[in-house]
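Recall that a protein's primary structure is simply its ordered list of amino acids. Everything else, from secondary elements to tertiary packing, is in principle encoded there. The following example makes that idea concrete.
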Amino acid sequence: MPRVQTGGRFLAPPGRYFPGLAWEVEEDNLPGAAEEEARKSGAWAKIIGDFPGEDGRFHPNFRLETLRQAAERVHKLGARIAIHSVIPESIEMAIEAGFDSIEHGTMLEANHIVEMARRKITLVPTMVIREGILELVRGFGLTADESRRVEIAVKKQAEMVRKAVEAGVMVLAGTDAGMVAHGIVRREIENFFEAGIPGEIALGAGSWSARAFLGLPGIEEGAHADLVVFAKDPRHHKEELSKPTFIMLDGRQVSPPSNR
């Protein structure tokens, strides 16, 4: 099986995320819970930064100072902290609090990009779930203007991701697996290509750049032998991503190659 780095359970306030998917913690308990999850995993903690309220609008789940304390405690362990974030307010708080990674960042704005580049905060936009997001918000009972705000942001997301890359923000390929099937990361890489991102960066977002970000070695002496081989260079032929000719995981051939 692939090597996994986990952030443990998502952390959210009571009633402020999908039932059963998060460890529900009160505001004052968030820093300690983040530390506990990071300690268990030795790598990450993840916080749910916002969620729709009863008024039909998205709201941040935690205060800035609470997020800052959570980040500080996780970082003291040598671990990192990520945030599920849709709206500008939670993106801004995550940046200010010193988070390492922003997941989704659906309503990312130009000023966020500048600060993320300056502070070296990574963006995992999960563009592959754009249609899924729109389906979800239709079932949230959002107000008409809030639904429209989400729809506009989803349609602009590829453009904002390209601008983030141009500004020097590291972007990585994620799929929000669970909401969609596992094993479809190549579709997210294709989304990067379609957003106008150079092939080297697009492919790296789901391979060597992601490995380096997670502290895993590349192709070097003594490293795990993890290889995916294509007939043509996928940096210039993105259609090759769906048809690898050879896959090796930890020195063992995976057969037959997946076409997902």
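The chain has a mean pLDDT of 94. The chain has nine helices and eleven strands.
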